[in-house]
Amino acid sequence: MTPPRRATERPFTVIVCTACAADQNLSVIDELRPTIRRCPHAMLVAAPCMLGPLTCASRPTGVMAVVQPCTKDRLACGPTQWIGPVTDNDDAAALRDWLELGQWENTSVPTQLNRHQRWARHRSRSN
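RE: above sequence
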C-alpha cells in the first residue's frame, strides 16, 4: 500500500464559483475535496457568481476560482489569485497539484489556468 500523498500545511481558502459550474459536466468542488482533506488548514467554499452576470457572460466558458492564502485563524495574509476557467479534469488536476504544493507566491499558476488574465488583457485593449 502506498502512503497518502503529502500536501501543504499552509492555510488557504479556495472559493469556487457555483454559477460557472451550473453548465458544466465537471464538478470542481468534487475534484478538490480530496485535496482539501489532505491539507490540514485548507477550506473549500462554494460561492455564487463572483464576477457579476455581465462579466461572466462575456468571458470564456469554465469554472472560476479564487485562492486566498491565510493564517490558521482564517485572516488573509497574501494576495488572492484568480484561477480559471477550469474546463476539464486536466485543469482540475493542475489546480489540485498547484494547491497541494503550497508555494503560491513562488510558483506561477499553471498556464492553462490563467486564461482569464489573457482574456481580461485583451478585453481592456479592445475597449
